[in-house]
Every structure is written in C-alpha cells, then in structure tokens.
Amino acid sequence: MLEITNISAYYGDLQALWDISLIVNEGELVALVGPNGAGKTTSLRVITGLLRSPTGSVRFVGTDLGRLTTHRIVELGISQVPEGGRVFAEMSVLENLELGAFVSDARKQRQETMAWVFKIFPRLEERITQRAGTLSGGERQMLAIARALMSKPRLLLLDEPSFGLAPILVEQMFEMITGINRQGVTVLLIEQNVRAALELAHRAYVLENGRIVGQGHGEELLSFESVKSAYLA
Amino acid sequence: MLEPLAQSLVFGVLVGGIYGLAALGLSLVFGVTKFLNVSHGELLMFGGYASFWVFVLWGVDPFLTIPFAVIFLALIGLVLYKLLFARMVKLPEEVKIRNTLLIGFGLSLILQNIALRLWTADDRSITTFYSGAAITFLGVRFPVVRLISLGIALVCFLALHQFLHRTFTGKAIRATVEDWEAAAMMGIDTQRVSQLAFIIGASLAGIAGTLVAIGYSIDPSMGLEWTLVALITMVLGGLGSIMGTLVGGLLLGVTQAATSFFLGGTYREIVGLLIFLLVLVLRPQGLLGTKRE
What we know:
The complex is a heterodimer.
Chain A: E1 2-11, E2 14-24, E3 29-33, H1 40-47, E4 57-60, E5 63-64, H2 70-75, E6 78-81, H3 93-100, H4 104-108, H5 110-120, H6 122-126, H7 137-149, E7 155-159, H8 167-182, E8 186-191, H9 194-200, E9 203-208, E10 211-217, H10 218-222, H11 225-232
Parallel strand pairs in A: 3-8, 3-9, 6-7, 7-8
Antiparallel strand pairs in A: 1-2, 1-4, 4-5, 9-10
Helix pairs in contact in A: 3-7
Chain B: H1 2-33, H2 40-58, H3 66-85, H4 93-119, E1 134-137, E2 140-143, H5 144-166, H6 168-178, H7 180-185, H8 190-215, H9 223-237, H10 242-263, H11 268-282
Antiparallel strand pairs in B: 1-2
C-alpha cells in the first residue's frame, strides 16, 4: 500500500536520512523504531509532503506522492498524528474532530465517523464542548488520534503516541491502536518504546542515524542481538 | 468642563470603532499568514476612493457604496496576493515577516503614487444631505453618520466572528492560525486559506476606507497614518484576537481624544505611539491577548 524507495532528506546542508526503503501492506501494523534523532519523524514528514526527498520515491496505492502537497496527500487517505498530538488547543473537542473530517469525502460522513470514533474513545464524548487546551495529556493524545481517524484514513501514521503518557495509559493506548488496526486501518507506528512497539506490530523496521539497520517480524526483532543490547537491556 | 470632555470621549469612541475595523483586516492577515502588510493603510485609502467615486459619479448613497468598495478591494487583494505575496507563504516565519514588510513598504509608495496620479493630492470627503445631522443627548452631540459607521464596524466584527466560528472554512482559518502544519495534516489547503484571509483582510480595509471617507476625509498620503493606527490597535488588542482588536481600537480612540482634550491636539499621535511602545515592552501579547508558547 505504501512503498518508500531510497528516500533521503536534508535540513539545509544537514543530511538526516540515507536511502530509506520500507513497505507497508494493506491491513498491516508496521512499526518504525529507533532512538531519538534517528530520523523517524523526518521519514514521516517526507511521506506527508512536509519535506521533500531529492532521491527515490514515495508511492501510495500506486500514486507518486513526490509532487503532491500535504493536503492532497491527506485527501488520498493518509492521515497523520504528529508528535505531541498538536491538537488545536484554542478550539473545542468537537471543532477539532470536525476539522479532522475536513476533506470533502469525510465531511459528508462525519456524523457516522464521529459515532465510531466515540466508541473507541468514549472519554472524548464527555468532553465534547471543552477546549482542547484544557484536556489532560492522555485525553489530548486520544483527541489527536480521533481527529486523524475522522478523515477515514486508509493509512494512519502515528508519531510517538505513547510519548509523555503515564505507564498505565501507554498500555491502554497500545490496545486502542491494535483495536483500530483490527478494524481495517493500516497503521505505520513510530515509537521509541521499542519493546512495546515490536510486540504490537506485524513487522518492524529499525532506524539508526538516518539509516535502516534492521527489519523483520516484531517477535523476530525482539530476539535480534543488536536490538536487544541497544534497547531492551 | 464635563460636557466638552464627554463630547471628545464620544468622538473618541466613534473613531475608535473605525480604528478597530482598520486593524481587523491587518490582524486577520497577520494571524493566518504572518504577513505584516504595511501597505494596509493604502488599501484602506483605495476603499475610500472607490466609495467616493461611486458616490460622485452615480449618486449612490454613501453607505450603499460599501459593496463596491468590498468588491474593488477583494480584487486588488487577489491580484496583490497572486503577484507578490503567494510566493512568501512557504518561507520561514521570520523571513516572511521581514520580506512582507519590505514588499508592503514598496507597495505603499506605489499605491500612493497611483492614487496621486489618478485622483490628485486633494482632500476628499463624501458629503451628503444628512452629513451634518446629529442626535444631541445630555448636551453631547452624536453625529448620525459616525453613529452609523460605528454600527457598521460592529457588524463587521460580529460577522467575521460568526464566520470564523460557525463555518467550516472559518474553522479552517482558525486552525491555520493556531498551527498551519497541523492544519495541513487535516487536509486543509493552507495556501488557499492564506489567499482567502488576504482577500478578506483587503475587503475589511475597503470598508474602513469608506467609513473614513464618509465621516472624515481621505487623500493619497493617508495610508501611513492608518497603517500605524492599525498596527497600534492590533498590538493593543493582542495579535489574532478579534474582539481584542475591537477593544484595542476603542481604547486608542478614547485615549487620543482624552489626550487632545487635556494636552492639546499635537500630542494625540505621540500618545498612541507611546502606548504602542509600552505595550510592546511590558505586555507583548497585547492588553487582552493570552500568551502563546
């Protein structure tokens, strides 16, 4: 479904990614793990068109995303939960969700989608009129994911959804993500929490210093020596 | 003593509504695009001339010339955006502010000279049979024309507020103001939102220009003064806050009026600039604005 071939990325003169290639198949939950600064978020920015790769290509169900603007990429069915959620703090929970369904196809179905989203995150329904800025960290993260789901994406990109959450919430968050994936949404999950992500994902890629250094099935990678020594010790 | 003071304060409030309206467009554009368009005052001047000529040539009631000014300025806004500002959208924020400042400065000179060429340096104002009419209440005069102008300014504030809060497009504008990248991730075309904000901003300047032409007077060199007024008002009210902008305008109007009453007219503008500097130094988020991280 998503096919990334040999992309690279630069911030000014600074190269951040080298020859990244990865594939996400329909229905999969794929994790992209690695330490801070490895280039995980940068990879996502290339997929969503916020950053351009001078090399290689990004293809989504056959369409080349290389020349498309971010909003066009969203219209094709890719939705992103950015790092930290970045909900619209000055706006209400309801308005945040409405904006999630901004693209025209999603807008028509927004009532049904919202009902679906509230089933996944019942807490948000209780907070519907509240300003997003007044939510707790966990609720904000939920809102960010719910907002991304409102566009009825085929592919959901999650950037560190567990970051800053209490351990008990982290577990819940991962359960929700698995649940969303089981309902047919393909997920590319970026995580620093390597063990949890590898247990969750069908397949995973390990990113280090802007290069992919390992890939395989989640369980396989868990027993991978370098992964073990680097992240699980 | 009391009556003349009350009279100048009333005039202050009446002009303050127009100050707010002049700043509203500037503030909207700045909030969405981070363009600091210092030729905003010239746009306002063009609105004034549009109304003046529609009034003179076709004899349309001055307040009914507003739609003409809006359409005229929306077109000018569109052309200027496409020609000059569209390419600034993708620049980093600081470069954007700097570049648009320079563009706006050059543009204000060009627009001023176009106006000079087309309409001469004469002061113009729209005078109609009810221009002198006034309601007197407790010995204080309320000129009808300026009352209506204040009403129109308030309607503009209310309408923009409703638009931004009730419509999908309006919410997209607010989302872009808060976090344009996150807005783009929602599928919002932030380029188009910027263009729309710029056109609305120009149109609002047009309306303000009409009201200035009706209640006061216009000339080709008025732009700088009104850009300053709009900037001061915007900073007073807090960047990007709609209702703050209205309060900022009223406050500036009243302060100016009080200053000319107690100290004399020459101090009017100095006080405005003084407040501007004080706010920038002591409360950069504006008097009513909230701090943003």
